UniProtKB/TrEMBL annotation:
Cofactor(s) required for function per UniProt: FMN
Originating species: Faecalibacter bovis
Segments forming domain Flavin reductase like: 22-176
Keywords: Flavoprotein, FMN
Family assignment from sequence similarity: Belongs to the flavoredoxin family.
Entry-linked Gene3D superfamilies: Electron Transport, Fmn-binding Protein, Chain A (2.30.110.10)
SMART domains reported in the protein's UniProt record: Flavin_Reduct
Keyword Flavoprotein: yes
Coiled coil: none
Pfam families per the UniProt record, alphabetical: Flavin_Reduct
Protein name: Flavin reductase family protein
Length: 292
């Protein structure tokens, strides 16, 4: 068990650490208009999708830490309850950052950041042409937590139309995460980039009713060569492989290798850990259960 140190809310350390803890966070690049049609564009990293039917996004323009005043995005939404959420990828991350400058009301951040506004179809605010995904939204509700500096104003926005750059769509109208080059916000001035080397898959446990780690054999559960991630993979199977399958695997192995060198259980557990790292759960189970 690792030792911890505790922090109370409303302290500098707590506020800073929280942004590192809840990260990476996708960026809501929100375009809005006021009642006179003046356009505003601003990024928010307190943002995520919260529902599918209807599709709901939530983001929070905090009150300014300096004096507790509200941001132009929120004021616009109060006047015109619509927005476009434009997803940020690496190609526009610096322009996104520039648009966060506190320009005076009425200044168009599209112009300041050098981004291209294009008309929306169902809402008044324009979309960002450079964004890979553009989500037209009707604002259902704004939940204001308090009038204190840093307080949340939770914007509940229903997506009424989505636009996707065609370059990212395949023939099935799907996208690959390897192509999008998305970015996300972390603590302080740090961001992260979703490069191919950072992407991996975890099989959804909803496809099976897994045994659970508690049902694993003790020699597996307490192996010094298997991590918690390994045990999670092993516990996601519905049943252990049959003895017949294990024996077949052993016979095939013996036809190719001198299996006596794998007699120590520690060696077999090391082999299993490498197979689990490669995602081959079934073979890992054969090695863990095989008796030599």
């Amino acid at each position: 068990m690792q030792e911890t140190k505790s922090f109370e809310p409303n302290t500098k350390s707590f506020d800073n650490l929280l942004k590192h803890a809840i990260s990476p966070r996708p960026i809501c690049f929100a375009s809005t208009v006021d009642k006179e049609g003046n356009v505003n564009l601003s990024p928010f990293s307190f943002f995520n999708i919260m529902g599918q039917n209807p599709p709901i996004c939530v983001f929070s323009p905090l009150r300014k830490m300096r004096d507790g005043s509200t941001k132009h995005t929120l004021e616009n939404i109060w006047e015109q309850p619509e927005c476009v959420i434009n997803i940020v990828n690496y190609n526009i991350v610096q322009q996104q950052s520039l648009s966060s400058v506190e320009y005076p009301k009425g200044v168009n951040e599209f112009v300041k950041a050098g981004l291209t506004p294009i008309p929306s179809e169902m809402v008044q605010p324009p979309r960002v042409a450079e964004s890979p995904f553009q989500l037209e939204c009707k604002v259902r509700e704004v939940i204001s937590i308090s009038d204190q500096p840093g307080a949340a104003n939770i914007v509940v926005a229903e997506i009424v139309k989505m636009h996707v750059q065609k370059q990212f769509l395949n023939d099935d109208d799907n996208v690959s995460p390897y192509d999008l080059d998305l970015v996300a916000r972390m603590g302080e001035d740090f961001y992260c980039r979703v490069i191919p080397e950072a992407i991996f898959e975890v099989e959804k446990p909803t496809r099976t009713i897994g045994l659970g780690i508690d049902s694993l054999p003790d020699e597996v559960k307490f192996s010094k060569f298997l991590t918690g991630n390994h045990l999670g993979q092993l516990g996601n199977v519905e049943a252990l492989p049959s003895q017949e399958l294990i024996d077949n695997f052993k016979n095939q192995l013996a036809s190719r290798l001198d299996i006596n060198k794998f007699k120590p259980i520690e060696v077999r557990h090391q082999v299993a850990s490498k197979l689990l790292d490669q995602g081959d759960v079934q073979s890992a189970w054969f090695w863990l259960l095989m008796d030599i």
